[in-house]
Amino acid sequence: MDAIPPDHFLALSRLDGLLGSSESVYDTSTLAAHDFDVDNRTGFMPPQAPPARLPANWEPWELALDAAIAESLQLGDKSGITQAEMSRSESWRRRVRELPVLPVSGMIRSETDLRRAHLVLAWTMHFYIHSLPPDERVVVPAPITIPLFHICAQLQLPPVLTYSDTVLYNWTLKTPSQKPTPALDNLQSRTLFTGTNDEQEFYLTSARMELRGVEALELMRSTMDEAFVGDDLAMRRIATFLGRLATVIDDLKALIATVRDGCDTTVFYTEIRPWFRGADSDPAKRKWEFEGLDMDPSFVYPPELSGPSAGQSSLIHALDMFLGVDEFSHGAALTGGGGPTKKSPFLVRMQLYMPRHHRNFLNHLAANPRPLREIVMGAGDVALLGAYNDAVGALKRFRDYHITIVTSYIIQPARRAAAMKASEGNPGVEAEAPLKGTGGTELAKFLKAVRDRTAAAVIES
């Protein structure tokens, strides 16, 4: 576990003076503990660049991914795709089908190797699926299926590309540095579908937000320390922490805006985003078939397969839970399908795509016996109430701007594409149905509902 900052011990000593013992103290120091794979310097991102390659035993997987990138595989439904491009993709897919089915038992004890293996196989699988012609069955070959399902069982992740594969564990430093924390301008993505700077900037925008969010995690920990003291001084300190938290959230909003500087909206929509699609958002509604699934009785076909999504960021979920906004933003009606269904709320389901240690972190945060929102509501402290509402307001502004970004990068390009299809005498399917996100959500309706419910978390004085 990382060293606990001195102010933590100060908070505990004040609490000891009130209770006489710290044995029952809720352990807030673990909000930045290795148990949850949360670092006090880099948050949910690893403090060092993730490994660039797997050990030699699994080099065939690395070589297959290298070849997909080197041969610039194209989307199978790309407009104007040439016969040469289709042949090159099929030649690569044939080589993937001919790979040996490699055992994974040798990497079971290495979390970093398991993560790298999930990344490599998931990226390879998405290259394989999305380079297929749109009218062809999706059959993931056994050399990918079998090891991927074994790895997913160890990591408790679904067999699909996730936010952690594209952001958290997909970076290195541009130039070597001895600094304990990666600088926001010294990051670069390792793996790309398109090789474009646009794609890299899309991932790095999220990575920079994760790093800026480290202060938010520290403010959460400090607030929870003071909450267990509960005296007037503690309430004043919490109000100060919440004021700083609102600033951090506003900084996250400013960072998400920087995606416009390096990622073109048309390039993103037409060339990058289609590679992310999970089975849930396949425009042809093809089921993903996994060859070899019947070879192990422990293998179970996943109940859903969403692609990577910002909804899988543990940082944003942590902000929701800490502020008590999750009671509103994760509500039962927010299934992502446009209304109440038998499914769990979309943001709750997205936690299944997070690294399991980060899910445990969120569970730990949710188990706090003295939730901040209840403290604010019961304190009768005007300054504290104002600071809390300012933080919730900042989160609402963040979601306002996120809707603006989604509108620019997805909704407007989708409307233009549908209009173009209609002008060619082919009424677009997207013009008739709600636009889906990569996670299968009815995008605009869902995001606006989350934003509105966040605003509803403001406590009236």
From TrEMBL:
Binding site for heme b: H402
Entry's family note: Belongs to the indoleamine 2,3-dioxygenase family.
Heme listed as a keyword: yes
Biological processes per GO annotation: 'de novo' NAD+ biosynthetic process from L-tryptophan; L-tryptophan catabolic process to kynurenine
PANTHER family (UniProt xref): INDOLEAMINE 2,3-DIOXYGENASE
Gene3D superfamilies with a match to the protein in the record: 1.20.58.480
Single GO term (MF): heme binding
Keywords for the protein's UniProt record, in alphabetical order: Heme, Iron, Metal-binding
Keyword Chloroplast: no
UniProt protein name: Indoleamine 2,3-dioxygenase
Any one cellular-component term (Gene Ontology): cytoplasm
